[in-house]
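queue> pop job 88
queue> type: inverse folding (structure -> sequence)
queue> payload:
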């Protein structure tokens, strides 16, 4: 697998090291940002515990900026 990952990284022109684990984290983050819920992601990643799934989820700063607080929706 390491050789295949290295070849793919080179073809993509990506300078940083890439591991299957890093790709798994990226996949989880993109799925959450696309609207997938944690339970769905849990099944897709093959986890038996939701706690395992939560460790893979990293929400981007750009996504956080777009989320409105419920307090902001109160009539003022």
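queue> result:
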């Amino acid at each position: 697998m390491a050789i295949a990952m290295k070849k793919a990284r080179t073809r993509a022109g990506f300078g940083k090291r890439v591991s299957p684990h890093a790709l798994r984290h990226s996949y989880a983050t993109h799925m959450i940002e696309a609207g997938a819920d944690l339970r769905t992601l849990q099944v897709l990643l093959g986890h038996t515990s939701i706690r395992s799934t939560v460790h893979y989820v990293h929400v981007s700063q750009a996504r956080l900026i777009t989320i409105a607080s419920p307090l902001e929706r109160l009539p003022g």
